[in-house]
biotin--[biotin carboxyl-carrier protein] ligase
Amino acid sequence: MSGFTLGSKARTAGYRLRGYDAIGSTNTEALAAAAAGDAGGVWFAAKQQTAGRGRRGRQWESPHGNLAATLLIVPDADPTLAATLGFVAGVSLNRALSGILPAGIVKVGIDGADGMVNGGKARIALKWPNDVLADGAKLAGILLEAQKLPDGRHAIAIGFGVNAVAAPAGLPYPATSLADLGVARSAEEIFDALSDAWVETFGIWQDGRGIADVLTQWRGSAAGIGAPVAVNQNGTIVRGIFETIDDAGRLIVRADDNQRIAITAGDVHFGATASARS
């Protein structure tokens, strides 16, 4: 038995749940369900992934006790707006984790990407395009995958990975877990909070009509705005100041020559890391 349950708001909204102790990949399971005709509105949650993946096909390490969860939806929205669901996911996960991680002394992260809240440093911050940081280190990640259906609509698998009990080692960036931060919360507890936070934020999105409001919330919890940034785009490094996220969800970098560069994809580094030449 997995032990997962939906939060009360998610249950009321009619979401369904398939829970697992271990699974290959929750995203793979969700997309297989879509191919088999599932109408969406179903979560796939597991305490371990044995074949998890992150962006650009990278392996996502998920030891037992961490949370891997994917929501399958088939939104009635323009397919070009589907990518903005990543910001809905980020705001949702930020809400869930901010409620779980208590306020306390905030350490400056190695990546120098601390967010702000109420005029002070925040323990939880969103890192463009799809990471959640705690004290400047990666605590969670998000992966969106789409699959076109026979009726022309797109099924969207929104994957969430949260380091509850352990963070992977040997990464090129700092990572942390709730356990490292002195917080004992199970994958089931995190999922309960996430499923309810999703209902709230998805309601704001309104099939893409409310994306401006979602982006406003995302910017309010963003890491690194106003700080030096380096974006690696397949080996090409763009450097400057992280100015904002525009209304299309692109990262806007102001280069040394004052040119504003819109970034649609890439690996982002802040602060001292942004100065490293690689």
About this structure: Confidence is low (pLDDT under 50) at residues 104-120. The helical segments are 8-12, 26-35, 85-100, 187-205, 211-220, 271-274.
